[in-house]
Structure formats: C-alpha cells, structure tokens
Write the structure tokens for this entry.
Amino acid sequence: MSTHRAAQVKSAGGPLEIVEVPTASPPPGHVRIAVKACGVCGTDHAFVQGGFPNLNWPITPGHEMAGTVAEIGSGVEGFAVGDRVAVGWFGGNCNRCEQCRRGQFMQCANGQVPTWHYPGGYAESATVPVAALARIPEGLSFAEAGPMGCAGVTTFNGLRRSRARAGDRVAILGVGGLGHLGIQFARAMGFETIAIARGAGKAADARELGAHHYIDSTAGDVGAALLDLGGAHVVLATAANSAAMGAAAGGLAPEGELVIIGATVEPMPLIPLGLIMGGHRVVGHPSGTAADIEDTMAFAVQSGVRARIEEMPLARAAEAYAKMDGGRARYRMVLTM
C-alpha cells in the first residue's frame, strides 16, 4: 500500500508530528486530493486542544486546503483528475436532513468538517466528499486559494449577506487572519471601511489593506469613536473577543448590525435597551458552502483581494502552527506540500 506524509496530533494538546499514513482510494461519492497548500487557521488551535466533541485521535488538522483531484470514487460526476480544487470549513453535507431539504446546508445535521470528521489538509493527500469541492479559478495559486476556503469565504460571505450597501460605513473588528481579508473585501465592495485593533501597531497595515479609518481600541471608547464617524451600519467582528464585540456594538448606527464570525464561548456584554432603541441586529455567520467559496475566489480574482501569506513546507508544520498560535502570523501561515 502506498503512503503519504501527514502532520498528526496524537492526543489533546499534543505536538504536531510528521508521520507516514496509508493512502487509500476514495469511497463512493468522494475524491482524493493531492494537497498542494493548506492554510493554518486559528480554529486549528481548538482542534489541537481537543475543543470539539467526538474527535477521532490521532487527528490531522487543516480546513483550508487546495490541490488537484488525484483519484475519483464511484458515483462522482462533474470533476476529473487534475482539476484544481479547494476545500474549506464546509467539508460536505448529507442532502437528506431537514436543514438540507430547506437549503440550509451550513446547518446540516450530518455536516462534515475537515479535521473533525475526516483527516484535514496538513498532509500530502486528503479524501473528501465531492460536495465539499470548490473549483479554483485561473489567477489564484494554490497558496492563495487555500485561505479563501475559510478566512476568505467567512469574511466575504458575512459582508455580502449583511445589511450593508455600497457607500455604508462598515467596521472590521480585528486586523488578523480574518480581519485583514475583511478590510480588503469591505473596501472592494464599496464600503467606507473602518479597521479596529488593539494598539497603533497595525494602523499602517490597515490603511494599506484599504481602511479609510483606523481605531485603536486601547486609546478610548470604541463605540464613541465609531459614532464620531457617523456610526457603523455593520460591524464585522472577526476578533474572538466578546468584550471587544460588545464595545463595538455601542457604535452601531440606527438599524445597524453586528455580524459575528470570531468564534468564542465567552458571554458577550450587550444592553438590550440599546438594541431595542437602535433597532440593532446581532447575528452569527457560519462561513459558507463550496459554491460560496467559488464566489469568494472569483471576487478575489476580479478585485485583487489576496491573503497576505507566509509559506512554510509541511515538514515545518509545527513551526507554522506555533507562529499562528502565538499571534505572530502576518497574516496567514500556509503549508506547502
């Protein structure tokens, strides 16, 4: 039996180790991908630490993978060996449950996520359901396409499904792996773009990425600063900080919307009367389907939006993960195979 290299974590909190694992042919309805690149996402920390239920140890992290179709299982139509594809957080749906029948594919009762339900993309090979495949357009390299499967689609889709319209003020809370893409997408969509981050250290980057305004959250009241600019029609909360989200909500314009994509389990401080009087809305946004990933990549090609990436080979997966986990990535680590 042939084998391939993969980065595995044997138990919760353990180190990433490069191992040889069997390379099996894909089952019906699946394809095997020769992985060329895989982004290192902040959510990978939760997987490595055992923060999701029913993990099957050892795990191979990675839900921002890009590569080529290497082998096709029976019953697969529409894809051929050699096709360039990406797979993100959305790793497949059942098309049978009540949610799928209503078109709510991100809430599929039997939904799959790479790492969680099958080995992820920190590997030379990955086998995925055909429903998870997004075609990579010409103009994007594998390393550029990988982060679009999670960070890209989550920010792009969150903005385009929000209440904001061209010319509105949109604030991006957090200038990191998600936020640096959110700023670019917001500017490209025609929004007056406001970046919010801790300290003045990311002000220059934020403006270079397209922000019209920068708010240092350590310099004063964020809500008041947003209101001084006229109030935000939408705040896209990419930073996983509940207190910061609550503070930014205080700067919403009338009928403004707080869109949450930064995952945290901490309670968020909100004042119900303020929500009522302002007609505000608070929503959570869960990434996007394979079709949404294709839309994201197409828009990125048209508009010039790109993740700022630092590439490292698979053999240095532990180093790349540590750099992400320590907040030292500027702004997306990408493993290359």
Q: What stands out?
A: The chain has a mean pLDDT of 97. The chain is about 25% helix and 25% strand.
